[in-house]
Amino acid sequence: MSGRLEIAAQQYESLAVDDRLSRRDRARARLWVGTALSKDGNHSYASRVMLAATREFEDLAEPEDWSVAHQKLALAHRGAGDLTSALHFISIARSTAATDAPMQRVRLETAHGHILLSDPATRDDGLHVLNKAAQLAGQFGLSHQLASIEGIKAMSEGLRPSTTVTREKIA
């Protein structure tokens, strides 16, 4: 998406309605529309778009996509400041994760840690989860995810990340 979020959302939207694509691919495109909107700060509308994609994945019996959609919904709600809903959706994503691939585990735990870090009452838990995600990312050579985790931690401390990766690129 490279910072051109509005253009990205428009391009994904054209794919979301392209009848040449399978229903699953159109639903994935819809999820990415929501992702771009959320990264651009339009969390409320993004959540509605993502929820529609989530329902489509459920209709299609696509558990992995369904779980990832919940993770993205959680981050959209975190961005909107609705930590209760964010925790609800990340809990669903974590309990239904259909793959144990290191990349997805790191992304899921990073999202969980980011949400926990957003609430002063769970800040220490968030740092613990992010540290575990960073260790896993390092173990598997996932340098982009490791940089994202470090960026999230730096931003939570009021520091500017030392890389160009921001908290928005974790999903």
Structure description:
This protein is mainly alpha-helical and 171 residues long. It has helices at 5-16, 23-39, 43-59, 63-79, 83-96, 102-117, 123-139, 143-156. Helix 4 (63-79) packs antiparallel against helix 5 (83-96), helix 6 runs parallel beside helix 8 and helix 7 runs antiparallel to helix 8 (143-156). The chain is globular. The N and C termini lie close together (12 Å).
Secondary-structure map with pairings?
Layout: H1 5-16, H2 23-39, H3 43-59, H4 63-79, H5 83-96, H6 102-117, H7 123-139, H8 143-156
Helix pairs in contact: 1-2, 2-3, 2-4, 3-4, 4-5, 4-6, 5-6, 6-7, 6-8, 7-8
Order of helices and strands: HHHHHHHH
Mean pLDDT: 90
Amino- and carboxy-terminal Cα gap: 12 Å
Number of helices: 8
Q: Main sheet?
A: none
Q: Give the amount of beta strand, in percent.
A: under 5%
Number of strands: 0
**Given the C-alpha coordinates, what overall shape results?**
globular
Helix share bin: over 70%
Outline the low-pLDDT stretches: 162-171
Please identify the structural class as seen in this structure.
Answer: mainly alpha
| Radius of gyration, in angstroms, nearest whole number | 15 Å
Please outline what is shown here.
By secondary structure, this protein is an all-alpha fold.
List keywords for this structure.
disordered C terminus, mainly alpha, 73% helix, 171 residues, globular
